């Protein structure tokens, strides 16, 4: 069952869309109205992973849930990490959604950060969720094994969705994407990010350590860091009760007080987390 069908059965509305960009078909869904917010999934995943966040986010925003090439409803197409950020930007222009707040999880965090560095005119605010934006270490098989385990902590419902998404993408696409990620280094481009940025991390992430999250926040000018207790690699699914208000407050605060830099309350929060 697709995300659209699941939400329809729950009485929620996510309108399915398809847009061709650079000769590739991009499947996406749209819900709500207001300032646009784009949700970008991780490796081996799809828009399904944002299911629990749509009600809260779409109550205040025009939410666009995109499936990257090779995954979800955009499967059977080649995924290229080096051009994924550029393609996401061209898709944003094609659907008339930029500038937007862009939220990227895991691999999607790499793509979102790459877009923000390359096209600051399209990214008004940036949220990176357990993002794979710093170089990963270790063999591909280890990361794929952790992915198959649902990131180490995820509940059964998400593990089932992960299994379906991985099966839809296929092992070849997953392994190739993982290899591209392991061979890539976005570090030199992070300082070019101009959008106000929030880095969100699950306290119990067994796939990408918490220390990487803090390093990522330190590498982006003025970035905030927020820890989600009781969450693993997918805090937006595991703790939507904490994740949704955190993101909405960040977006609201940025609209009320535009500009870069860390707010005083963020500094206190970081000190408490340490």
Give a structural overview.
The protein has one domain: 3-Layer(aba) Sandwich (Rossmann fold). The chain has 274 residues and is an alpha/beta fold. It is built from twelve helices and eight strands. Strands 1-2-4-3-5-6-7-8 form an eight-stranded mixed sheet, sandwiched between helices. Helices cover 43% and strands 18% of the residues. Helix 2 links the parallel strand 3 and strand 4. The N and C termini lie far apart (42 Å). The C terminus is likely disordered.
Summarize the SSE layout with pairings:
Elements: H1 3-9, E1 15-21, E2 24-31, E3 36-40, H2 54-58, E4 62-67, H3 81-95, E5 100-105, H4 107-118, E6 123-129, H5 140-148, H6 156-169, H7 171-182, H8 187-190, E7 197-202, H9 210-219, E8 224-228, H10 235-238, H11 240-256, H12 264-273
Parallel strand pairs: 3-4, 3-5, 5-6, 6-7, 7-8
Antiparallel strand pairs: 1-2, 2-4
Which keywords apply here?
8 strands; about 270 residues; alpha/beta; eight-stranded mixed β-sheet; Rossmann fold; about 20% strand
Largest sheet: 8 strands, mixed
Contiguous uncertain segments of 5+ residues: 257-274
Which superfamily, in CATH terms, is the homologous superfamily? Alpha/Beta hydrolase fold, catalytic domain
| Oligomeric composition of the shown chains | single chain
> With helices defined by DSSP (H or I, 4 residues minimum), what is the helix count?
12
N-to-C SSE string, H for helix and E for strand: HEEEHEHEHEHHHHEHEHHH
CATH class descriptor: Alpha Beta
Gross morphology: globular
Q: How many β-strands, per DSSP?
A: 8
Fraction of helical residues: 40-55%
Any idea of the CATH topology? Rossmann fold
CATH architectural type: 3-Layer(aba) Sandwich
Strand order of the largest sheet: 1-2-4-3-5-6-7-8
The N- to C-terminal Cα distance equals: 42 Å
| Proportion in β-strands | 15-25%
> Any idea how many domains?
1
**Mean pLDDT, all residues:** 84
Structural class: alpha/beta
Radius of gyration: 17 Å
């Amino acid at each position: 069952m697709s995300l659209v069908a699941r939400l329809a059965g729950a009485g929620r509305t996510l309108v399915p869309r398809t847009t061709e960009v650079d000769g590739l078909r991009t499947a996406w869904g749209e819900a709500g109205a207001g300032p646009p917010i784009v949700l970008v999934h991780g490796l081996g995943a799809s828009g399904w992973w944002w299911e629990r966040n749509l009600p809260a986010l779409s109550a205040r925003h025009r939410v666009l849930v995109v499936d990257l090439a090779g995954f979800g409803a955009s499967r059977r197409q080649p995924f290229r990490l080096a051009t994924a950020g550029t393609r996401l930007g061209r898709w944003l222009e094609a659907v008339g959604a930029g500038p937007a707040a862009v939220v990227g999880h895991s691999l999607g965090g790499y793509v979102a950060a790459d877009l923000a560095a390359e096209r600051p005119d399209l990214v008004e605010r940036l949220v990176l969720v357990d993002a794979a934006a710093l170089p990963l270490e270790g063999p591909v098989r280890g990361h794929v094994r952790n992915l198959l385990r649902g990131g180490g902590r995820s509940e059964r419902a998400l593990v089932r969705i992960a299994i379906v998404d991985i099966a839809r993408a296929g092992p070849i696409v997953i392994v190739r994407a993982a290899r591209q990620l392991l061979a890539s280094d976005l570090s030199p481009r992070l300082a070019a990010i101009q959008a106000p940025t929030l880095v969100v991390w699950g306290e119990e992430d067994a796939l990408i350590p918490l220390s990487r999250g803090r390093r990522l926040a330190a590498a982006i000018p003025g970035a905030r860091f927020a820890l989600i207790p009781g969450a693993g690699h997918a805090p937006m699914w595991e703790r939507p009760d904490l994740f949704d208000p955190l993101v909405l407050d960040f977006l609201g605060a940025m609209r009320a007080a535009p500009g870069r830099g860390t707010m005083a309350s963020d500094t206190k929060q970081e000190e408490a987390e340490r």
